[in-house]
Amino acid sequence: MTQKNPHGSGAKGPDELRRQIEHTRGQLGDTVAQLVERADVKGRARARAGDLRDKAGAMTVQLRVSAAQAGHGMQDRAVKAGHLVQERAAQVGHSAQGRMTKAGHLVQERAGQGGHALHDRAARAGRTARDDLRVPRPVRSVMGAARRHPRPVLIMGAAGGCAVAAAVIWRRIDRRSCRS
């Protein structure tokens, strides 16, 4: 009677039989190691915990890098927005400065015109006061001083004209700012 070999062919000699036995022992050892590994729940849990710890560490690093990149991006956007606001404020400032310069020139021009007109009126009033005998002496002396020294009268007239022009300009600016 011949036995059938589960591996397919029988051993041809004692050396081959020894090799087959060694091979079978190796396979059996591997199988036993796998069974022991499966039965070692604590070891598998430790290994799994180690794997999860490693993944969590990697995720932490990745999250930190992502947060740093997001922070840098926000910082860059904030800097750009700050520069844009600064540029716009400078433009508005220059525009306001230009308007105020024009307004100042206009006030100065009108004050000059008003000063000349005031000088002319003062001269006429002085002549009238001189010619009119009913004018009291203190008024005549003031009018005479104004004729002799017209510069203070012009300065006072110009200051009054500037005040009126400035009030008109500020009133216009207030009306415009109320509409906005």
Task: Give an overview in words.
With 180 residues, the chain is mainly α. The chain has four helices and no strands. Helices cover 88% and strands 0% of the residues.
Topology:
Layout: H1 14-39, H2 41-131, H3 137-148, H4 150-179
Helix pairs in contact: 2-3, 2-4, 3-4
What oligomeric assembly is this protein in?
single chain
Query: What global shape is seen?
Result: rod-shaped
Helical percentage: over 70%
Determine the number of helices (DSSP H or I, runs of at least 4 residues). Answer: 4
What Rg is obtained from the alpha carbons, in whole angstroms? 53 Å
Number of strands: 0
Span from first to last CA?
114 Å
How confident overall, as mean pLDDT?
Answer: 81
Strand pairing plus helix content: what structural class?
A: mainly alpha
Order of H and E elements: HHHH
Strand proportion: under 5%
Give the uncertain stretches in residue-range form: none
Q: Could you describe the largest sheet, including whether it forms a barrel?
A: none
Short description:
The protein has helices spanning 14-39, 41-131, 137-148, 150-179. By secondary structure, the protein is mostly helical.
Keywords:
180 residues; mainly alpha; 88% helix; 4 helices
